[in-house]
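Support request from a user on the community tier.

User writes: "When I paste my structure tokens into the form, the page sometimes reloads and wipes my input. The last time it worked, I copied everything first. Here is what I submitted, just in case something in the input itself triggers the reload:"
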């Protein structure tokens, strides 16, 4: 959130709305945000592609504690922002002329049509037809994201099932998310969470990520035993892991409006 009310402790309103006072003036118009999370047990900081820095704060945390935390980790955050700027998506057009899903080895030219409803259809011949009422960036983004989620649901589930059968590592269910900092995760209950933006990555990279998450069904950590299991299914996991870390450069701007 960009604005809050004056507080003695985070989460306790005491006055009129104002820009969050714990940032120096150079930060007030930037991508720094505070999010109060009931699940948080400690302060944490996340830096996302696109220049967003999010400070996650447990309820009831005093502003002085948040200020100290930010001061301690500011240099790291700014260094990480510079690193991500190098790997940031090159395309800034929110109404793209074409869309490519590298996982599927497919590329479409995009046609825009005025319609009363948001929809995206594959018209054949490599044409993706995007229908929106006014053709605004926001409407185009919503329509494309709905389409992206459908594509990801179908193809990522199919590939996860195939890798599960290949490795003998089962899972409970699959859910899709559109996170800014994580490609996937696996819970102790066997729920595999995957980022829809994986469809912008190479098939080899996606397979490695699926192997990685399924191996957490045996080892809920990143121990030597975990990596040995990963290596037994994907001997070349190291370069694939590095490629995945830089995979945000393949994600178009419209995927994170």
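"...and here is what came back when it finally went through:"
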């Amino acid at each position: 959130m960009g604005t809050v009310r004056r507080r003695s402790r985070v989460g306790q309103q005491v006055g009129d709305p104002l820009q969050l006072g714990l940032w120096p003036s150079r930060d007030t118009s930037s991508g720094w945000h505070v999010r109060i999370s009931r699940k948080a047990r400690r302060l944490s900081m996340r830096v996302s592609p696109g220049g967003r820095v999010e400070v996650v704060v447990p309820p009831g945390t005093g502003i002085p504690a948040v200020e100290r935390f930010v001061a301690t980790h500011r240099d790291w955050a700014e260094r990480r922002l510079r690193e991500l700027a190098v790997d940031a998506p090159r395309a800034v057009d929110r109404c793209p002329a074409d869309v490519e899903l590298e996982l599927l080895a497919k590329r479409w030219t995009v046609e825009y049509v005025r319609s009363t409803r948001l929809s995206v259809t594959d018209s054949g011949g490599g044409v993706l037809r995007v229908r929106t009422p006014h053709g605004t960036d926001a409407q185009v983004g919503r329509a494309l994201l709905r389409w992206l989620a459908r594509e990801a649901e179908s193809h990522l589930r199919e590939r996860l099932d195939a890798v599960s059968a290949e490795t003998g590592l089962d899972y409970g269910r699959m859910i899709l998310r559109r996170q800014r900092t994580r490609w996937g995760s696996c819970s102790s209950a066997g729920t595999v969470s995957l980022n829809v933006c994986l469809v912008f990555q190479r098939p080899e990279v996606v397979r490695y990520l699926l192997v990685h998450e399924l191996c957490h069904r045996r080892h809920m950590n990143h121990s030597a035993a975990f990596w040995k299991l990963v290596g037994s299914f994907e001997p070349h996991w190291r370069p694939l892991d590095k490629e995945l870390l830089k995979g945000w450069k393949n994600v178009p701007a419209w995927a994170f409006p």
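Agent notes: The reload is a front-end session timeout and is unrelated to the input. Residues 115 and 133 are 5 Å apart (CA to CA). The helical segments are 63-87, 137-167, 203-215, 224-233, 237-245. Escalated to web team.
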